[in-house]
Amino acid sequence: STDSRIGLLSVECFLYVAQESQTIAQLAQKTGADAASVNKAIYPFIPKLDKEGYIIQPRIGLLKRKKINNQRSRHIMLSKLGVKLLELSTCDE
Questions:
Q1: How far is CA 58 from the centre of its chain?
Q2: Mean pLDDT by 10 residues, the chain (93 residues)
Q3: What is the number of alpha carbons within 13 Å of residue 58 lying toward its C-beta?
Q4: Do residues 49 and 55 touch, judged by C-beta distance below 8 A?
Q5: Which residue of 2, 55, 67, 88 has the smallest Cβ count within 10 Å?
Q6: Do 10 and 45 touch, CB atoms closer than 8 A?
Q7: Is the CB of residue 74 less than 8 Å from the CB of residue 67?
Q8: Rounded CA separation 71/69 (Å)
Q9: What is the pTM of this model?
Protein backbone atom coordinates (compact mmCIF):
# COMPACT_ATOMS: atom_id res chain seq x y z
CA SER A 1 0.00 0.00 0.00
CA THR A 2 1.15 3.52 -0.64
CA ASP A 3 -0.66 4.70 2.50
CA SER A 4 2.19 5.37 4.96
CA ARG A 5 -0.15 4.98 7.97
CA ILE A 6 -0.68 1.34 7.05
CA GLY A 7 3.09 0.81 6.82
CA LEU A 8 3.70 2.45 10.17
CA LEU A 9 0.89 0.45 11.76
CA SER A 10 2.46 -2.72 10.37
CA VAL A 11 5.77 -1.87 12.01
CA GLU A 12 4.10 -0.95 15.29
CA CYS A 13 2.17 -4.25 15.34
CA PHE A 14 5.34 -6.18 14.54
CA LEU A 15 7.16 -4.52 17.44
CA TYR A 16 4.37 -5.36 19.89
CA VAL A 17 4.34 -8.97 18.70
CA ALA A 18 8.14 -9.08 19.01
CA GLN A 19 7.72 -8.41 22.73
CA GLU A 20 5.06 -11.12 23.20
CA SER A 21 2.28 -12.78 21.23
CA GLN A 22 -0.86 -10.68 20.89
CA THR A 23 -4.42 -11.07 19.64
CA ILE A 24 -5.88 -8.70 17.05
CA ALA A 25 -7.98 -7.12 19.82
CA GLN A 26 -4.89 -6.53 21.98
CA LEU A 27 -3.00 -5.00 19.04
CA ALA A 28 -5.98 -2.78 18.25
CA GLN A 29 -6.13 -1.58 21.85
CA LYS A 30 -2.38 -0.90 22.06
CA THR A 31 -2.15 0.89 18.71
CA GLY A 32 -5.43 2.76 18.95
CA ALA A 33 -6.45 1.43 15.53
CA ASP A 34 -9.59 -0.58 14.84
CA ALA A 35 -9.34 -4.36 14.44
CA ALA A 36 -9.92 -4.20 10.67
CA SER A 37 -6.96 -1.82 10.23
CA VAL A 38 -4.75 -4.07 12.37
CA ASN A 39 -5.76 -7.10 10.30
CA LYS A 40 -4.95 -5.17 7.12
CA ALA A 41 -1.61 -4.03 8.57
CA ILE A 42 -0.38 -7.53 9.45
CA TYR A 43 -1.84 -9.18 6.33
CA PRO A 44 1.41 -8.92 4.28
CA PHE A 45 3.38 -10.81 6.95
CA ILE A 46 1.12 -13.84 7.57
CA PRO A 47 0.49 -16.94 5.43
CA LYS A 48 -3.13 -17.29 4.34
CA LEU A 49 -5.44 -19.73 2.56
CA ASP A 50 -6.91 -18.96 -0.85
CA LYS A 51 -10.45 -19.94 -1.91
CA GLU A 52 -9.29 -23.41 -2.98
CA GLY A 53 -7.58 -24.05 0.36
CA TYR A 54 -3.98 -23.60 -0.81
CA ILE A 55 -1.53 -21.76 1.42
CA ILE A 56 -0.29 -18.45 0.05
CA GLN A 57 3.09 -17.59 1.56
CA PRO A 58 3.84 -13.92 2.16
CA ARG A 59 6.92 -12.31 0.63
CA ILE A 60 8.32 -11.72 4.11
CA GLY A 61 6.77 -14.14 6.58
CA LEU A 62 7.61 -12.42 9.86
CA LEU A 63 4.43 -13.32 11.73
CA LYS A 64 2.15 -16.32 12.16
CA ARG A 65 -1.28 -16.96 13.68
CA LYS A 66 -1.75 -19.70 16.24
CA LYS A 67 -4.86 -20.84 18.06
CA ILE A 68 -4.15 -21.29 21.76
CA ASN A 69 -6.18 -23.42 24.20
CA ASN A 70 -9.42 -23.54 22.17
CA GLN A 71 -9.80 -19.77 22.34
CA ARG A 72 -11.87 -18.16 19.61
CA SER A 73 -9.22 -15.55 18.82
CA ARG A 74 -5.81 -16.46 17.51
CA HIS A 75 -2.53 -15.14 18.81
CA ILE A 76 -0.19 -13.37 16.45
CA MET A 77 3.42 -14.35 17.09
CA LEU A 78 6.80 -14.18 15.44
CA SER A 79 7.61 -16.77 12.81
CA LYS A 80 11.04 -18.43 12.70
CA LEU A 81 12.13 -15.78 10.20
CA GLY A 82 10.89 -13.02 12.51
CA VAL A 83 12.85 -14.45 15.44
CA LYS A 84 15.96 -14.78 13.27
CA LEU A 85 15.63 -11.19 12.08
CA LEU A 86 15.47 -9.91 15.65
CA GLU A 87 18.44 -12.04 16.67
CA LEU A 88 20.48 -10.60 13.80
CA SER A 89 19.59 -7.04 14.76
CA THR A 90 20.71 -7.58 18.36
CA CYS A 91 24.03 -9.15 17.28
CA ASP A 92 25.12 -5.81 15.75
CA GLU A 93 25.12 -4.03 19.13
A1: 11
A2: 61 92 94 93 86 84 83 85 84 60
A3: 17
A4: yes
A5: 2
A6: yes
A7: yes
A8: 5
A9: 0.74
